[in-house]
Write a structure and sequence with these properties.
Structural class of chain A: alpha+beta
Number of domains of chain A: 2
Shape of chain B: globular
Helix content of chain B: 25-40%
CATH architecture of the largest domain in chain B: 2-Layer Sandwich
CATH topology of the largest domain in chain A: Ubiquitin-like (UB roll)
Largest interface: A-B, 35 and 30 residues
Radius of gyration of chain B: 19 Å
Structural class of chain B: alpha+beta
CATH class of the largest domain in chain A: Alpha Beta
Number of helices of chain A: 5
Number of strands of chain A: 5
Number of domains of chain B: 2
Oligomer: heterodimer
CATH topology of the largest domain in chain B: Uridine Diphospho-n-acetylenolpyruvylglucosamine Reductase, domain 3
CATH architecture of the largest domain in chain A: Roll
Largest sheet of chain B: 5 strands, antiparallel
Distance between the termini of chain B: 65 Å
Number of strands of chain B: 14
Amino acid sequence: MTLSISLSVNGESLNVPLEDTRTTLLDLLREHIGLTGTKKGCDRGQCGACTVLLDGKRINACLTLAASVDGTDVTTIEGLAQGDTLHPVQAAFIEHDGFQCGYCTTGQIMSAVGLLSEGDAGADPERIREGMSGNICRCAAYPGITAAVLDAERRQSESEGTSV
Amino acid sequence: MGAYLQPDTLDEALGILAREPVTIAAGCTDLFAATESQSLNGTVLDVTRIEGLRRIAKDATGWRIGAASTWSDVIAADLPPAFDMLKQAAREVGSVQIQNAGTVAGNICNASPAADGVPPLLSLDAHVEIGAKGGPREVPLAEFLTAPRATVLMPGEMVTAIRIPDVSDKGESRFSKLGARKYLVISIVMVAARLHVQDGFVRDIALSVGACGPVATRLAALEEALRGTPLAGLPDRLQPDLIASALTPITDMRASDEYRREAAVHLLRRVLDDLTLMRSPV
């Protein structure tokens, strides 16, 4: 029996056959759809490297059954930039050196995008550290990551302030 | 490969449960950790799309947390201060990524001795609403959990909601969890306290300790000793012997049994200090 699911990935509608109900969203993205920007770190929900947005909320793609995302909207790191213009969180990570080896970075950035849209961390570094605690960085680039998220938050609230 | 079923109605789900053995899936945050094999055997029943199952609301008899409600749903819900301990626990379940997927009902069905949701729910006198084709039943959470990883849930049944009677949504509450680090960690010890004060006296108190025995437990003897006593000096009247006699901690990679016993007393004192200070006149 083959299962087929429909979903939107970074705005593109896809129809994907599934041969195994245990296929994760992470493997679906990397192996079936070919989007390898989402990383596999621990593959058991402990490191956050596989963070993506599911209907706008951040989740661990490694703990999500692909079969369960039928009809949903998935955003990965590949869906953030507008052409050559980086997403403000991506730009802030570069500016504040929010990484060293880079393996966890795509998960860190997706998690930060999710955190900013949740809208309750504000400019409090401790709340940002709490909100980013599901993303482990083995290089311990945490000071740069916190600075980048704080800066992205500041830019976001400024641009929201000017647009009102 | 087995089938993957995502029913829209509870009737449909109960029909499937009556017909065949299934693996019930909701947030899947524990299902994966518990599934070592590369394929899930048999049929998977995904309960997250059942209409009405992801609602948190109050009715005539109390509060109802639908079985597909996530930890993030609990954090966002408008609930009285008696639920603050449940919200505090929710914010310490794994990471936000986990909280967005994992469900409160899944946490109790998984029945880990260190389940973060259990002590606050015990202190709220929670009941578990169980659905089956033959009709629903309801059991107190303390009876629902029987041993590590074991519940009274029978084949053909599923949890449909967690119910909090409205007599138990009174007072203020606190949760505290001790782990090797602050976030994304399995509890060494955790406590959940609900305190209802009237005219400077303890009208009701509910104290629960988790990760200190096969299942989390209420401290009934200590609660009894504290009911009716003055609020002033309450934390000083915690009797370590009444705490110790209710706990059966084990020694494992995270801590020794002696350490857990002692830590439980300190955590209880801390949450009661906090609840008492909050109520003191300024």
